[in-house]
Design brief:
Aminopeptidase; 10 helices
């Protein structure tokens, strides 16, 4: 029996469904959809009684209009399923798309954008509505390999620098108290200043403390220390199978020693102990595979995944009207949706 539901982020069903997926990430949880979001978040859920599709999205009002659009939270999201997508029946995809379209029409949602998860196969669901655009590659460490086998995939320079850090006396510990969390936050802010990051990345202090104390997914703040001083730190999350490299920063005093490499080396060992399958390091800055951040991450693994986004216009006429009202006639611009440019 087919069923379609709109599940709000304050409904316990949201996380019950997500955590029953065969593969999911912390980006899919209700907590992450609520922590830094002023809009309504919903989970579009379709089931045939044996299988399900669940797509979390954020519904935003479009300024000066009675209309709305949908987007995904920052990070890697898209739909989750109770089985690999290849094992799901096509009829369920058809049912989902019809019900999703009907909901958008009835609720004046004129466009949808979602960042997809590189590790979870999701594209098949969008074959018949909207379009997929491939962006940059991301890097992941295969945690199903032994630690020794993982290290064989390190770049030689990474191995050398990690060994040097250990010889010099750098150590890795997990943050133990609020004082260490606050010290990391200061380092993180300084790092964002140094790289001229956008305002989005300046989360307030409550964000970090709440994030590191939530009960919806696993998380840890690993710190690299030298003679008792914090040289770098990184927050890692973990769910049933996936560990994510989330937010990180380095003390300017220690940048040349690259202590972050030692943190990542320790994180993958933690992932092994937890029985996880992936340590997803993400991609570079601005969607480029040739930037310094991507090259840094690629020094740990040659296992790459394709990061893609889904873009869908549910009402072409209203979408076109909005673009015209914004005086944005340059339709070759790749930004989506164009009326928010």
């Amino acid at each position: 029996m087919y069923n379609f539901e709109i599940i709000e982020s304050d409904n316990v069903l949201w996380d019950t469904i997500v955590k029953s997926a065969y593969l999911y990430d912390f980006h899919h949880t209700s907590y992450y959809h609520n922590i830094d979001n002023n809009y309504r978040s919903v989970l579009f859920y379709a089931s045939d009684g044996e299988n399900f599709i669940a797509l979390p999205l954020v519904v935003r009002p479009i300024e000066d209009t009675p209309w709305f659009d949908c987007t995904s939270v920052y990070g890697y999201c898209g739909p989750v399923f109770n089985k690999p997508i290849e094992e799901l029946p096509d009829d369920l995809f058809i049912f989902f798309s019809k019900q999703f379209n009907a909901y958008c029409r009835e609720n004046d949602i004129i466009s949808v954008f979602s960042r997809l998860h590189p590790i979870i196969h999701q594209k098949k669901i969008f074959q018949d509505f909207g379009n997929i655009r491939d962006m940059n590659k991301t890097v992941s460490i295969d945690l199903t390999l032994s630690p020794e086998e993982q290290r064989k995939h390190y770049r030689d320079s990474s191995k050398y620098e990690i060994n040097q850090l250990k010889r010099k006396g750098f150590i890795i510990t997990a943050a133990e108290n609020d004082e260490e969390i606050d010290s990391f936050i200061d380092i993180y802010y300084n790092t964002m200043n140094r790289v001229n990051a956008s305002k989005y990345y300046y989360f307030d202090r409550n964000y970090f403390h709440s994030f590191l104390k939530n009960n919806f997914f696993g998380k840890t703040l690993l710190l690299a220390k030298f003679e008792g001083e914090i040289a770098a730190g990184a927050i890692f999350t973990y769910t049933d199978k996936i560990m994510q490299y989330h937010l990180a920063g380095s003390n300017e005093k220690y940048i040349k020693q690259t202590p972050m490499k030692l943190i990542i080396d320790e994180a993958r060992l933690l992932g092994n102990r937890l029985g996880l399958q992936y340590l997803h390091l993400g991609g570079g800055v601005g969607g480029r595979d040739d930037d310094s951040l991507f090259k840094f991450k690629a020094g740990f693994s040659d296992l790459y995944y394709q990061f893609s986004v889904w873009r869908y216009i549910t009402d072409n006429e209203k979408y076109g009207d909005l673009v015209l009202k914004k005086n944005n006639l340059v339709t070759t611009n790749d930004f989506f949706p164009l009326y928010r440019l």
